[in-house]
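Notebook entry, structure prediction.
Reason for the run: the old model in the group folder had no record of what sequence produced it. Starting over properly, with the input documented here first.
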Amino acid sequence: MDIVLDTNVLVAGLRSHGGASHNILTRLPDGNFRLLLSVPLFIEYEAVLKRPEHLLATGLDAADIDTVLDIIAANAKAVRLHYLWRPMLRDPSDDMVGELAVAGSAKILVTLNIRDFRSLTRSFGIPVLSPGEFIALLNEDKSR
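New structure, fully documented this time:
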């Protein structure tokens, strides 16, 4: 199943090792889902994760973040964005995440900010789940 991870899920997953966001990151190599990535989103991942406040909170340095990003890239499918659906969402900074979900035919978009992505479900039928809801779905599928 192809999914898109909003940047906030990645940040939360690295900042807290006990939550659903971290659980998603640890399950990435399992092959039960595949991340969709675009160049703009990958650049955002890097820029946000290397902010001093996130490095301090995670105890990681820039080289560690590069390793995390290498793992993400190795377990993701690159999607080229040939068109822009802007404006698409309430928050213009989220548009590149929505565009990736549409262009990559994502089955699910995972975010901590469900409210800002509701129109993605209405307009394109792509479910938007919290990390906890996504983990519950993976666990449900695993038990079948």
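Summary: The mean pLDDT is 91.
The old model has been moved to the deprecated folder.
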